[in-house]
Amino acid sequence: MHLGLENKYNDIHPHARCALDKNIMGVYYNSEYRLSSYVGRIKKYKKLEIEYGIVTGYKESDIVPMFRIKKDKWFIAPAYEKTGNAGIVIGIEFSIK
Are 34 and 58 in contact (CB under 8 A)? Predict the structure, then answer.
């Protein structure tokens, strides 16, 4: 779910991830209905997982920063629009292992 943003966005983001130790990399279908690839790291803080890195596939720029906080299956991430408007993305993640 995209909150605080002006435009309509894709709310379903299927993705595939490879995690090795604290390193992550993967691909997903992003909010702009485009394919994105990312690399990053995971840090644990109490019961939270903090993910950060870089991601491709957005119209605004070839490479943008990635940041997401997870607790159990829930996540929250910052979002921004070209107009300067800022918001958040909130969601639930289902895993198939």
Answer: yes
pTM of the model: 0.86
CA angle (7, 89, 78) in 5-degree steps? 100
17 beta partners: 26
Rounded distance, CA 91 to CA 12, Å?
Answer: 9
pLDDT tens readout for residues 8-21: 898 888 999 999 99
Question: For 9, how many CA atoms within 13 A lie in the half-sphere containing its CB?
Answer: 24
Choose among 93, 33, 96, 30: nearest CA to 66: 30
Report DSSP letters for 19-40, one per residue.
EETTEEEEEEE-TTSSEEEEEE
